[in-house]
Amino acid sequence: MDPYAALRYKEFNIFLLVRFAMVFAWSMQFIVIEWQVYSLTKDPLSLGIIGLMEVIPAVSMALFAGHIVDQREKRNLLITCIAGFSVISLGLFLLSWPGLEESWESKTILYSIYALVFLGGFVRSFLGPTIFSLIALIVPKKIYPNAATWSSSTWQLASVLGPALAGFSISWIGVHWSMCVIFGFSLFALIFLFQIPRKPIMNPKIGEPVFQSLKDGLKFVFGNKAIFGALTLDMIAVLFGGAVALLPVYAQDILHVGSEGFGILRAAPAVGASITMLGSTRFPLHKNAGKKLLMAVFAFGVCIIVFGLSELFWLSVIALFLSGAVDGVSMIIRQTILQLKTPDNMRGRVASVNSMFVGSSNELGAFESGLAAKLLGTVTAVVFGGCMTLLTAGTTAIVSPSFRRLDLQKDIDEHEKED
Q1: Which of 371, 396, 397 is nearest to 385 (CA)?
Q2: Which of 13, 261, 370, 384 has the greatest count of CB atoms below 10 A from its CB?
Q3: 258 — alpha (psi -120 to 50), left (phi > 0) or beta?
Q4: What does the alpha-carbon distance between residue 85 and residue 81 come to, in Å, rounded to a whole number?
Q5: Torsion sign across C-alpha atoms 116, 121, 123, 124
Q6: What's the CA gap between 66 and 377, in Å, rounded?
Q7: Which tens digits make up the pLDDT trace of 315-347?
Q8: Is 283 helix (H, G, I), strand (E, B) or coil?
Q9: For 220-259, how does the pLDDT look when each residue is reduced to its tens digit (9 = 90+)?
Q10: Phi-psi domain of 207 (left: phi exceeds 0; alpha: psi -120 through 50; beta: other)
């Protein structure tokens, strides 16, 4: 297969630029918020609350958002999402104004940040399903796996540079002007998105009652063993292996590496994942996908345990780098499963369920990590999460032989015949 097949489509290249700018801005913003909040509170639980504030609206609105995405034109809906994010970024920029800390109490600033993060959760509930649905309207079905790999690679590259720049920019220009950079990237994404024309709505059931639509979407996801198995496995692994939420604690209180070291730690997993994803464009992972996914999740758990126990900066960076590399395998396989096995008229709803299972588990994982760190101590909480990840992978391998035997080559061959 041509490793650059998807890149031969101009609209897909524009889409990648938009996605890069948005993920860069979002990941950088989350890091800057984490740093600011922990600096205000010095409480690891406050980091968990950031995740909780985003996950509550993201989960509560997810299914409804999926219904709307399947009913609406995707390009314009994505424009609305990015515009909403831009408004939130502007609000955080104003909240981080240096003079504000002198006139406002710390609690007032903290609660205002939480409120904007909460609003961001609503935006996020629409953003993921819209992006997932738009990809399928830009490239033909036969290159969905290649497009999914490049899209995920772009996501990871932005996830590398966003946190890394956040750590350095906090040190160089401070929190306030770092927020200004984030706002600029969101405007960049908004401008470029207008170069993609509007797309047809593929759902033949326009105007379908909401509850019937949601019922059909849930029935499809829970009835498809490959999709349900991949989502469940990744959700539990991310939920308990979410050590990255505690990185400010490690950077400031355990490893003592400051904001620049924090940026390196935060970027390390995404660097590993990016290398994996770029390699997968030449060495596809669709054969024996089930076994590869299980092994990747197991290895992820091992890396998290090593990171949790490490008191050496270089060892911590290596452990996080390797955790990202194996997590990249998991992400590629999951996205390929979703793209290949989801019909066009259900992409929004399936992507919404995916965001509930996997995307929101990042924030729930952040809350779980923050709460566990408060109750058990930071190191114990991280090691416990890694052990739960190992248990999840091992249990799934034993109780689900059909998932273990999952192979995606047949689905790819069928799509090639259709095109």
Answers
A1: 371
A2: 370
A3: left
A4: 6
A5: positive
A6: 38
A7: 989 999 998 888 888 888 887 788 777 877 788
A8: coil
A9: 887 777 777 777 777 777 777 666 777 888 888 888 887 7
A10: left
Q: What is the pTM of this model?
A: 0.73
**Token match 């590399």: residue?**
325
C-alpha separations of 149 from 2, 158, 332 in Å = 12, 14, 6
How large is the average pLDDT for residues 121-137? 87
Q: How confident is the model at residue 414 (pLDDT cuts 50, 70, 90)?
A: low
Instruction: Compute the distance between CA of residue 339 and CA of residue 347 in angstroms, rounded to an integer.
Output: 8
For residue 222, give the nearest of 353, 400, 336 by alpha carbon.
Answer: 353
- The dihedral built from the CA positions of residue 378, 381, 387 and 388, taken in this order, carries a sign that is negative
- Cα dist from 339 to 140, 226, 344, whole Å: 11, 12, 9
Tokens describing residue 204: 């033949």
The 3-state DSSP class for residue 285 equals coil
Condensed to tens digits (0 to 9), the pLDDT of residues 357-378 reads 665 566 666 667 777 777 888 8
Contact indicator for 162, 26 with CB cutoff of 8 Å: yes
CA distance 396 to 360: 21
Measured CA to CA, the distance from residue 120 to residue 53 in angstroms comes to 9
d(CA 320, CA 305): 10
Give residue 91's pLDDT: 92
* Helix and strand numbers, DSSP H then E, in the chain: 18, 0
